[in-house]
Design goal:
This protein is mainly α and about 60 residues long. It has one domain (about 1-65). The chain is about 75% helix and about 0% strand. It has 3 helices and no strands. The protein has helices at about 1-25, 35-55, 60-65. Helix 1 runs antiparallel to helix 2. The radius of gyration is 18 Å and the shape is elongated. The mean pLDDT is about 75.
Length: about 60
């Protein structure tokens, strides 16, 4: 889960710098929405939550008890 969070932070920082450079170079008439980034980020975060939940309550219960 930590790796997913760090990758999301690096991605957001990269998008921020690209958009900032486009705005400062007067290309602000472009659209700045991201088509795939938020969807992919949500899929990975939800997958991480399910993996975390499964590791705490799924197979660990049969090994520990």
């Amino acid at each position: 889960m930590t790796i997913i969070t760090l990758l999301a932070m690096v991605y957001a920082l990269g998008i921020f710098h690209v958009r900032l450079s486009n705005i400062l170079s007067e290309k602000s008439n472009r659209q700045f929405h991201d088509r795939w980034g938020p969807s992919v980020l949500c899929v990975f975060l939800i997958g991480g939550y399910f993996l975390n939940f499964y590791s705490k309550f799924g197979f660990c219960r049969s090994i520990c008890c």
